[in-house]
Amino acid sequence: MPITDIFRHISQAPTNPAAKAAPRAFDVADLYRGPASDLEPVEAAAGPLDEKLRQAYFWIVNSAIISPHYDIEYNESAPAASFTFGDTKAKVSLPSGQSYSSYVLLPLLNFALRRRCLLVGGPGRGKTSIAILMGILAGYSLREVRRGMQHGQPQMTVADLFGNPLPADLVNAQRMEDVRVAWRSWLAMRVKIIDEYNRIPTRTQSALLTVMADNYAEMFDQVIELPEAAWYLTANDDAGGGTYQVIEALRDRIDVVVRALAFNNRFLGDLLYRIEEGIKPEEVVPAGIIFTEAEIERMHREILAVTLAPELRRRVEFFAGQFEFLEGAAEQLDYRTKDTAKLAGADVHLLLAGETGKDRLKDLGQQTRNGLSVRSLMTVLLFAKAVAYLRGTRAVALEDLRQIIPFVLHDKLAPDPDAPFFEAPGNAIYRVDRIGWIRKLFDLSCAEYDRLNLDRDDPVAALGDEFARGLEGLGEAEVRARLVKIERLLADWSRGRKLYGPLVDDILKLKYLHQRYTNYLRWLTWKK
Amino acid sequence: MEEVIPFHRSLAAQRGRLNAKFAAARHAHPALDPAVVLEHLGAVVGPIVSAVAAIRPAAADATLDALFDLSLELMGEGVLGRPATGDRGRCNDCEVGLRRPDPADEKPVLSRAKDRLRDGCSGFEPPSLEARRAAVAEVWGTLLPALPAHIAAEPRRVAGSLTNALYNLASTPGARPAVWLATMRTVGPDCPDVAALLKLGQVAAWLAGLAHYRAAALALCRELAPDLACGALGISTDDQGPTTDEASLDVILDRLAADPWLLPQAAALARPAGTPALKLATRAGAFRGFGGVFLAPPTVTWADGQFYVRDGDAWWLLSADLFGATLLRADAPIKPASRAPDAPFRVSQAAEIVCGPHRAAFPELIAVSSWAADAKTLVVTSPLSHAVYLFAVMSERVCCG
Predict the structure, then answer these.
(1) Interatomic CA distance for residues A343 and B297, integer angstroms
(2) What's the pTM?
(3) Sign of the C-alpha dihedral, residues A504, A508, A510, A511?
(4) Nearest-CA distance B220 → chain A (Å)
(5) Which residues of B touch A26 (CB under 8 A)?
(6) What value of ipTM does the predicted structure carry?
């Protein structure tokens, strides 16, 4: 290929090449493959869609959104080179693997997964532009996408959002269900865009919540079921700068937060060219990267089929286990959580500060005011699978988790800025840099996991595997032996071990196993 | 004053968008010349859009949009549009250029195959970029305007697929793009839909020399309507013997599948015509310095029902039949053998080929480095040549130059 096309050209497949043996088989369909691309009708494309997703990514970064950032770094071995600049030792690594711009990658993964993405950043950073591009990727025309975009404003009513009852029905109807509603067309779209969602009044936010959370809308006893959709919400300032406070439940429904990256002024020439030539990238999206409804559905299934190895799952468990535990929150171990303190209206920071005996720098749970919800953990797993899929692999790698976790947990993990960790030399920056902080948390968690040698020596995992093989045919002697094993392990741990979050999870897992075996033993005894 | 035709109306309707697309394409390909694009639009795209508008006016705008995009893409790649030099190129078989098609190209396939046999063309000259560019221009200039119904249905798919097909044929040493073009021009308009047209193109590609498509093309013939399949194969409906009814076509295809050196028209006859004789059917490959694929005189082997040729460490899959021979890079075969169990061929100590009752000596057999055979074909290599020689028992006179 002579030159990299900027606006119309889709990156030639494979966009993430791997070494392959020369194929012996040939296909008569090869006759129609050549310099003219994107010829097959989209319905006919039967292969995995990750290549198309990558092509869409590269088209957006190369042609549409000028985002020359590679902040999601992948290295095939060690980085090609690293440099530090300035007194603050700003580190710049030149990645040796295919790396990505989070600002484009995450909205695209959100598109593939049909989840809810919040784009935050100052005005004019391209938040709305990327959301519009996602709508066009879903097969809508530019006009449809623009008409379907909802602009948050302080007077926005539920009727503005959902539609209006038919005036004739309002006059003639004898019962509420006789009032038909003219639903707004955007509700049926597979990409939904809410611009400046934090300017929507609270009551309308609640109505929006039902659509986002449960995929249906209700007015006048009329209900409309909606298709699975990728949501894009934008906010200029997500830290309370909107007209209305965003309700907690709505915030919690947001799966991933993407921050608009700064424009690199070295690319002003590209902007000038667009101005002079009247080029609007959203008007020239290549047909080859537009997904049909069936393709989006299939892509979603393919993403779910990406595997996550048990070893990696254990690391996620260990990481997630760091945050919820709060030693001073209750008497019984099960209730010693930050949620207990929060429900009681207690100050989590004070309770955390009151703990003794633990290394407060080492305890990652000291850094947050909350734990992780089940929903956020599911989102982590989904987005990790999606990024692995986009990279062309069919198994999640540790680096996939490391790169994706900060964006998913961005609004989910609330830092405690007064925690000792942030007072430590060089850590003050993490009070501001949420992405860097969460990534640091994951790195620290993995380092601790390695130190404890849990990949090789994890007695709870071994006991869990043993239990997972089933109780069918298990004799009384064996059950008693397992119970003793659990009790010995707990006794061992109770001697002088400090209580950290992951250990609490392990203890409660052992308690669970002990209870299951105890119940089984009772049944065995009764059977005799 | 120039008459306003549907093409002009489509241009006017999409002026802003098309201008923006051109500006975007030129940003990526600064060499794109506005004058050349305009000339191409007027001289090449215009007639196609007008032909489409004549049968389906509503499809004119979409056709222009798709062909404009495709044109910019192909011009950006340097395979479409006015060539940089005055030389219009010459295809590997001297058959495709920016010239009017030779009436000989319109001959039925039997005549073309006979011509090829008579002319004894080895056809392994290297294809040039100019030849490919000329082939693409021929598709746009003569084939696409002849297929307005198909273009109207799926403009990008049809125009792009046919462009790629002829480009690939023009890139394959020994293939005859003009034969493919002639078949598509004569039989293509009869195809009821795009799917049939593209199947016809695949069959025609086999008949134009892409021998590795043989098995798939024969299968596709069974999916095509009998008159289309017969049209592609050059079996006219008034020939002697079985012609266009489906059962007869099946018999013809079975015979063709069984013998790669059988002419379709001969397969349609109840009795074989002519006296079979052992012939040098064709030769394939050449020294890489002369546009071939081999760095050293190759050797041949047989495995899994196919011929494999190697020169040192590299392996090629050799496919050959009456219509051509191709060499495709391949992995090393797992269980190579000298010949198929049912191969009737032997190369005697006296440098003679023996095949059942047939026996003949050829000058190419003076020095034999290797040979392999299946039921119908003997492949011989020589330490003195970068070509492989294919022998078969055939009914027609064969002369390989």
Answers:
(1) 84
(2) 0.69
(3) positive
(4) 10
(5) 212, 328
(6) 0.75
